[in-house]
Structures are given as structure tokens and as C-alpha cells.
Amino acid sequence: MVKSKIKIMLPESSCINPRISNRHLKVQHNKGFTLIELMLATSLLMMIMFSGYYAYSLYSQKWQKRVQVFWQGTEQAIALDSLHKVLNSAMPYIVNGKDDKACIYFKGTSTSVSFISNSAIFSAEPALVQLQIEAMPDSNNYNLIYQEQSIKHNLVLELDHQAQWQHEIILLANINDFDLSYFGWQSFREAVTRLNSDDFVKKDVRTWYHNHETNVSRLLPEKVQVSFTSEKGSSNFQIALSQHSIYRLLSYIRVDD
Question: Closest Cα partner for 213 from 126, 117, 129, 101?
Fold first, then answer.
């Protein structure tokens, strides 16, 4: 019996070359990172992160200061607007003064003023308002305090009325100085004489003054000047009051008589 020999031919690609295999293994082994390379990459990444954090912290601090300055300016603008509205709406509210003589409720010095306002900050109806300077504790600066009491249930308000304040806020804070001055007639007699005089050339005796004596003037001042300084600079402005207080008071006196 004849035995047949079968020869199996393998493809050339299946032949294994030891040199190629070793080279391939060597290439695969060189694809990793060494410890030094990893440490350098980590150090660079930390430096980038630290630089970003430092830049962000500087930006955040500057932004915080800008926001603080913005809000301080906004708060002062709102306070000044409220101050203007309250003073500009001073009413010729008539009360009995010294010797039962009718006069308009308005008390004023260089550091405080109280009157009846038709546009108070908290009350929808007319209210007794007082603005007064108070020294800040442990400081040479001052606060302007705003106080308010509604007169809705007060049919008759006396000149020496003891107010029971319902609202109190700091309108202006941390100011260096504050001064109030008034313009108008300091004497009711002078105002009436001027009003009834036909001599228009007669000297006008209206002046600026710091102490409004209610029982003597008996009228509203025509203007109030507000002056103060703060860390933002100086402010000086005038607010016009009602120009008809003399007619209101004369009408009341004639009806009362």
C-alpha cells in the first residue's frame, strides 16, 4: 500500500520573523510615560490652575469694590431724592402758637428741622417729619436721622406736640458735616407789610438765616438750603417750599376772627 504525502503550504504572511517580533514589542513598550514626564505635566497643570485662580481672585476683588461703590452711590441718590420730595412737599399746616396766635408748623435750626409733609416716606397721608443730625459713636462723623409720625388721627396738632415716632431710618450715613439754612421772612409783620404795600421799590428784607422761630415768622420759609460733605465730596442744593403759606395763614386768621 502506497502512502501519499500531503504538503501543506503556509502563506508567507504567517511566517514569524523573530526580528520583526522583537522590534514590535520594543515599540509597544516605548509608548508609555515616565515618572518624570508625569511629574512635569502635573506641575505645569498646577501652575496653569494657580494662575487662573489668582487672576479670578483679583477680578473678583475689583468687581466687589465696583459693586460696593455703585450701591453706595445708588443709596445716596435715593436718599437725596427722598429728602428733596419730603421737603418740597412741606404743607402750610396751621397750629396755635404762643399767645394762641395761629402759625404754620415749621421748626428749623442748622442741624434739625421738623414740619408736616404731604409726601412722607412711609405714610400715604400727611405726616409729621423730623430730620436731625446725630453724632456717630466713636467717630467724628454724623448720621442724618429721618423720623416720621402719621397725623391721620390728630385733628389738632399743637406747636409743642410731643411726637411718638412710628418710623425711624438713617437717611444719610457717615457724613462729615451738615448744615441747614432758610430763606424768607423772619417776621410775619414784615411779610404782611410788604404784601399790603403799594411801594414796590421798598427794600426786600428777605434773607438767609439758620434759626426759624415759628412764633415770630409764623410762615413757611420760601427755600431750604441743604449742605453736607462726605467721603464722596460736597453737596449743596436748594429746595423751594410753598409760596402761598402767607395767603393760607391770612385766610385762616380772617375766618377765625
Answer: 101
What are the backbone dihedrals phi and psi of residue 95, each rounded to the nearest 5 degrees, phi first?
-135, 170
Percentage of residues in the chain having pLDDT higher than 70: 78
Half-sphere exposure of 248 (CA within 13 A, CB side): 15
Strand pairing partners for 237? 226
Helix (H, G, I), strand (E, B) or coil at 109: coil
46-62 pLDDT tens trace: 888 888 887 877 777 77
- State the average pLDDT for the chain: 81
Q: How many helices (H) and strands (E) does the chain have?
A: 5, 11
| Range from 8-12, 87-91, 174-178, 210-214 carrying the lowest mean pLDDT | 8-12
Angle at alpha carbon of residue 178, lines to 177 and 183, rounded to 5°: 145
pTM for the predicted model, two decimal places = 0.69
The domain segmentation of the chain, as residue ranges, is: 70-256
- Say if residues 138 and 174 touch (Cβ distance below 8 Å): no
Question: What are the grid coordinates assigned to 65, written together?
Answer: 469694590
